[in-house]
Design goal:
alpha+beta, 2 domains, 5-stranded antiparallel beta sheet, single chain
Length: 157
């Protein structure tokens, strides 16, 4: 058997396994793909104004829907301690502070998979490298001819 035939056979076997696993999974879209995102903690430091206070939600920039929150970042001078975040207990605490903070989360793209099972396996393998990772089920895009063709061919294997 030639090297090319062996590679083709291996590729078809790999695609067959993906297709078999996809058929087992309950899919919410016709051609789902599974994306692993990791939530990254971010801060916006500034003295609060009424506008920022009312529009705290503009900082919500993650698909998981984790809400932004108001608080303070504390830096201890002369100490060998990383700055740390303290949530605000009430509105008065925010307006009395010189530099208040909004803590919010953004999504960091980590990896993409054809099956949920493999995305879950990945999370288990990489848990030590991730903060608040999660799987987002997406679709490859409306009228994405290349991906539609790929998934149609995959279903024929």
């Amino acid at each position: 058997m030639s090297h090319e035939n062996a590679a083709e056979k291996e590729m078809i076997g790999f695609l067959y396994e993906i297709n078999k696993e996809r058929k087992k999974e309950k899919q919410t879209t016709r051609t789902p793909i599974y994306i692993v995102y990791d939530l990254q903690e971010c801060f916006f430091c500034d003295s609060f104004t009424e506008e920022v206070n009312e529009e705290c939600e503009i900082f919500n920039s993650n698909l998981k829907g984790k809400k932004a929150e108001k608080g303070f970042v504390v830096t201890l001078t002369g100490e060998d301690i990383e700055p740390f975040y303290i949530p605000a207990l009430d509105e008065e605490q925010i307006y009395d502070s010189v530099c208040s903070t909004i803590r919010y989360w953004t999504d960091l793209f980590v990896a993409i998979f054809f099956t949920r099972k493999e995305a879950e396996n990945y999370l288990q393998r990489q848990t030590h490298n991730l903060n608040e990772a999660y799987i987002y089920e997406a679709y490859p895009g409306y009228r994405n001819i290349q991906m539609d063709k790929f998934f149609c061919l995959l279903e024929k294997i």
